Protein 1
Amino acid sequence: MNIGIVGCGKIVSQYLESFRRLEGVRLAAVADLDPERAQAVAEEYGNGVRALSVEELLAADDVDLVLNLTIPAAHAEVALAAIAAGKAVYGEKPLAATTGEARKVLEAAREAGVVVGCAPDTVLGTGIQTARKAIDDGVIGAPVAATATMVTPGHERWHPNPDFYYQPGGGPLLDMGPYYVSALVTLLGPVVSVVGAASHTRSERTIGSGPRAGEKVPVTVDTHVTGVLVHESGVLSTLVMSFDAVATTSSNIEVHGPLGTLAVPDPNHFDGDTRVYRLDGSEWETLPVSAGYAGSGRGYGIADLAATPQGQEPRASGTLAYHVLDVMESLLDSAHTGKAVAVESRADRPAPVPLTAKQS
């Protein structure tokens, strides 16, 4: 599968690293609103990669799939343009800034007969997949509850251009929530309803690094969001996402069952230890790696998509990303109305990933 990248910002380097070693994908072209940035990426990667305008990339015959690495507010616009050009699309999360925009992307893809995939593909790594296998194997019994916690004092401390984190489509839930909610759905199945609360503690943030250090950016989104997700299986997941807290000793994700508790590794990473505390145990034990793409990184979801038989949903699918976005948007709706909100969309729990070394 020949790949064209639109958007050559900070995250592109992680995809380039994976593309150098993945089977089944070839980087053909890159584009950015800043032509010099696209040219720099093309020169860094080599191997005949061309720096093009966005229009040229969408029209290129040797681009099968557009990797959309633009800011969240532009995700839908770029995806729809790629689909109109007959290209498959794989986007960074979230699928779009709103469920309304995301729905248009999926509808356009169905009409055009092209595939849509979306990050995060971290859930395909050995960390989350080993935890999933433990659940499927009954290590903790039937799950009854889970917790997911992400706190940080804010990305403006390290990101030189953090504006979009504090605009619609940003905030801790829409920025980091996709990793955690995607992991929870992968582990425990789809969500049917939510209840939430949120706060907005500061009206501006100060950039802490780079050429704009000291500059203030406005905050127009909630920066601390918490709530409960009710899974179709009956499991209750408690979620905390914050740009307002300094640190936590909580596990990123814990899953509780009658026979034990799983401590699941950071869903923003592809690997990490899955630990279990058994009902009859006396201490935490680390489970051996037993599932997932070993040594994986950003872009493995594209290789998985490329290897998925025609007519089947890839594991990191647009349908899953839409459900995750719907869950998060519903949680924010609940936070603002003070009422429980039903989640209308559904996504099948993605197929498990056997332990696989998917690299050349």
Note: The mean pLDDT is 96.
Protein 2
Amino acid sequence: MRARLFSSPLNTMLTVLIAWLLLMFVPAIVEWLFIRANFDATTAQECRASGGACWAFIREKHRLILFGLYPYDEQWRPLLATVLLVGVIICSCIRRFWKPYLGLIWLVVLTAVAVLMWGGVFGMRYVENDKWGGLPLTLILSTFGIAFAFPFGLLLALGRRSNMPAIKAISIIYIELIRGVPLISLLFMSSVMLPLFLPEGFSIDKLLRAQIALIMFAAAYIAETVRGGLQAIPKGQYEGADSLGLSYWQQMRKIILPQALRVVIPPLVGIFISLFKDTSLVVIIGIFDLTQAAKTAVADAAWRGFSTEAYLFIAFIYFIFCFSISRYSQSLERHLETGHQR
């Protein structure tokens, strides 16, 4: 402790300052969050009188925050869809499920999610996707975004390193153009400008347009990350693959890409986490995601003034998912023995 905290006058001063800040703020935060918090109030006035956090507001509005404008009596459907999505993601993280039938499991689960969310069959009422919202919509956007952006990004990375000038130029232009603009611009373009270029009488759903923008954005960053991994592979690996008489795609699939992806696991996971959080930006084009659902709950006149609790609640949801992804990536690195752990 002396070497780490009190090794110099500056370190001693910083240690004392940080300890003083913790003593000042941590007890007050704990008191507000838990000790003086109200969990069972029936009105906003009762919550305000307690002087602490109003978790009764979350209890009152949790279904609106989690499921958005989805019909109240049908909210078991998005709940089941969320459980199925989380379940198949967890299965995909377990090595014993890394079999060819995992693709079939994904197909069945995604079909079930579509049936549950849209309905219109098996006696379920049809629900248009402009009524979707909250956590299920966030998971759908991020899951499909990662699923489609990853292979697209791989192709772009290979295209940028291609010896064919046309393919290389197209890949470079796409990557640099997409990485040079913020995601908000792509969302606005997909929501406002894209319909202007479509033939008359033909339209693309707003949710699908947002999904395409997310995929395009994430694919460009994945491509540059994978390209860095490809550059880290020694030239001898390519020459050894050539000496075995393997075709280009056999080299990539069996020798080069497995090593390159193993090297870039940490930045790839960072991109996946960023994509999951960036789904909150779809609120600017009117899609009812988790953030917009929280804003709507706060706008209720009977419970106005508890935005802190609402945003802490959705922040906790984001943290659980992002922290789980991060911890899994660390365990995967240890299992694959990438040699990059400290």
Note: The two ends are 21 Å apart (CA to CA).
